[in-house]
Amino acid sequence: MPAQPRRVNSLRVAQQLHSLPVRSANGSKSRDVPEGLDTVLRLSGRIESEDVQDLKTQIDGRTRGLVLDLEHVRLVDLDAVHFLAVCETKGIKLRHCPQYVQQWIVSEKPRIRELE
Questions:
Q1: In a domain, 33, yes or no
Q2: Which of 3, 10, 28, 58 has the maximum number of C-beta atoms within 10 A of its C-beta?
Q3: C-alpha 76, offset from chain centre
């Protein structure tokens, strides 16, 4: 029987070994799924300013073997783009990144040093 969900920084985290679904207050979701040697954090919906700190907490310094799967992400704001750009510079892989997000990340990378 899976453990009962608990609240962490407005994200609903279900404590299960293989899958950790997360939903923020604005409806964006993430799922932490081990895949071979990588851990894939599958994001969906919107990623906005209020979600960035929650995602940072969920990542909690893990960068090696971490993949953010953005296949089902539909909307991001500037803070989310900065967060994703910093993730890339730290070696976190962005999988299925929408083209507009990737182009926005490229355009924001000159400012990354100021954000870190």
A1: yes
A2: 28
A3: 11
